[in-house]
């Protein structure tokens, strides 16, 4: 590691100065205060072509290293992130809006180091398929080439690491394109990683939608990893068809949770809350619609309300806050529209649903909506914000049918005192991951991905590594 460089990036001012493009760049504002954070570079498609050409040149040398050597680089990169973690967390908070405290910006920065280390720990040894004295066949995984990583604005640093760590481990070079809403965080993260990595193996292009579209069609990019909306994912799939790119698409979700009649409302309330409201609900695999049995419906509503009203929301740099604003005006308007659809229909407001439109920042109050029709827009559309509809059911078959009726299937959860019964229900839910008595927790050892319109391919674990590599069988 270049310790001098890394240490020079371990204050917020130094880290921001390293990535700020100056007045010629695009202004980035704090979604909590409206204050200017910094200026993002305005990279072009021409800049993308240069970055990809450089990545092609460097990839073969990177791939020629042993797997152990690449894993060592990932561990050293984790050290570099940890050395700069507080500065990175402050930038995340100021640009994305999530608080430093709770499962917020410090959590995200720490997760980056964890994912780097665990990604370097998986065993991907050669697999013997047949060895019967006549046939000897083995399976290995080889690098794809250059991976294009297109990330979102909700967890900009952590999801970028989810994309680049496995790609690098498997011998690929990576070109990253961050969201236009949160480019500074990703630029800073790449700056930190590149104090350790060989020059050119990891590059970042901060551009607009035209640059993203060019990644989808670029003939020298062999794989795309994308996290974002289903609509954009479909465009990427269509645009990449001519070059037959490999794709990992982690797209939108509208995760259902089912509370069974034997659950303890007080015992599950806090976990229900964080399943729904982590990052102010701006998480693909957050709990977005909650189905509760008649027998404990009012108790769950009341216990959730008691937890929710105790969670302070405000500017992320204030250590007491654990919830922040929505990251941008577009998302604020979506949440506001959907909550209005619920209240206009006569649904019962347990908490929130009354934003201060004159106050600075895109703050939407923590909102719980009860007695809502299961076909209300707040239920069937993804709100991606701090508003949870709670739907009453009387028969578990009804709840399973409601959970499965949408065209998305990222995550889901079942809440019960009986884990055997919960697993039986979980097995019937159409989702890539179903949690029992929790929601949304991801683990770098456990594959994660969606079904239906929530995308395809998985990330994390050995299966995630295989998704950024090409299988090769040697038979003989």
From TrEMBL:
InterPro entries given in the database record: Ald_DH/histidinol_DH, Ald_DH_C, Ald_DH_CS_CYS, Ald_DH_CS_GLU, Ald_DH_N, Aldehyde_DH_dom, LUC3-like
Record carries keyword Oxidoreductase: yes
Transmembrane segments: none
Protein name stated in the entry: Phenylacetaldehyde dehydrogenase
List of catalytic residues: 250
CDD domains: ALDH_AldA-AAD23400 (cd07106)
Nucleus keyword on record: no
EC annotation from Swiss-Prot or TrEMBL: 1.2.1.39
Matches recorded under PANTHER family: ALDEHYDE DEHYDROGENASE-RELATED (PTHR11699)
Pfam families: Aldedh (PF00171)
GO function term, MF aspect, one: phenylacetaldehyde dehydrogenase (NAD+) activity
Family per record: Belongs to the aldehyde dehydrogenase family.
Organism phylogeny: Bacteria, Bacillati, Actinomycetota, Actinomycetes, Mycobacteriales
Gene that produces this protein: feaB2
Positions of the Aldehyde dehydrogenase domain: 24-466
């Amino acid at each position: 590691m270049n310790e001098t460089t890394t240490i020079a990036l371990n204050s917020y001012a130094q880290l921001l100065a390293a990535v700020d493009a100056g007045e010629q760049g695009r202004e980035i504002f704090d979604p909590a205060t409206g204050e200017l954070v910094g200026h993002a570079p305005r990279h072009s498609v021409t800049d993308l072509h240069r970055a990809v050409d450089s990545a092609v040149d460097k990839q073969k040398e990177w791939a020629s290293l042993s797997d152990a050597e690449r894993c060592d680089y990932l561990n050293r990169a984790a050290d570099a992130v940890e050395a700069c973690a507080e500065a990175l967390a402050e930038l995340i908070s100021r640009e994305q809006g999530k608080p430093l405290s709770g499962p917020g910006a410090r959590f995200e920065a720490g997760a980056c180091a964890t994912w780097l280390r665990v990604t370097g720990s998986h065993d991907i040894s050669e697999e013997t398929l047949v060895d019967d004295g006549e046939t000897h066949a083995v399976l290995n995984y080889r690098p794809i080439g250059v991976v294009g990583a297109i990330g979102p604005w909700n967890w900009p640093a952590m999801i970028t690491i989810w994309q680049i760590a496995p790609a690098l481990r498997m011998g690929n070079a990576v070109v990253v394109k961050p969201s236009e809403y949160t480019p500074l965080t990703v630029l800073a993260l790449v700056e930190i990683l590149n104090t350790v990595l060989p020059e050119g193996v990891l590059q970042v292009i901060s551009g607009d939608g035209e640059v993203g579209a060019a990644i989808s069609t670029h003939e020298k990019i062999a794989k795309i990893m994308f996290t974002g909306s289903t609509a954009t994912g479909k465009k990427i799939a269509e645009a990449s068809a001519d070059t037959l790119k490999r794709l990992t698409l982690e797209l939108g979700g509208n995760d259902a949770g089912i509370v069974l009649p034997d659950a303890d409302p007080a015992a599950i309330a806090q976990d229900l809350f964080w399943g729904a409201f982590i990052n102010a609900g701006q998480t693909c695999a957050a709990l977005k619609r909650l189905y509760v049995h008649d027998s404990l419906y009012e108790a769950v509503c009341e216990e959730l309300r008691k937890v929710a009203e105790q969670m302070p929301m405000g500017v992320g740099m204030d250590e007491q806050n654990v919830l922040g604003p929505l990251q941008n005006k577009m998302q604020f308007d979506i949440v506001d529209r959907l909550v209005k659809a619920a209240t206009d229909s006569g649904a019962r407001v347990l908490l929130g649903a009354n934003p201060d439109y004159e106050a600075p920042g895109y703050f939407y109050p923590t909102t719980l909506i009860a007695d809502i029709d299961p076909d209300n827009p707040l239920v069937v559309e993804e709100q991606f914000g701090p508003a949870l509809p709670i739907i009453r059911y009387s028969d578990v078959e009804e709840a399973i049918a409601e959970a499965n009726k949408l065209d998305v299937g990222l995550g889901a959860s079942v809440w019960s005192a009986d884990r055997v019964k919960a697993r039986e229900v979980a097995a019937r839910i159409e989702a890539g991951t179903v949690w029992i008595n929790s929601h949304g927790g991801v683990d770098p050892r456990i594959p994660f991905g969606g079904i239906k319109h929530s995308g395809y391919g998985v990330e994390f674990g050995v299966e995630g590594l295989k998704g950024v590599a090409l299988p090769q069988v040697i038979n003989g």
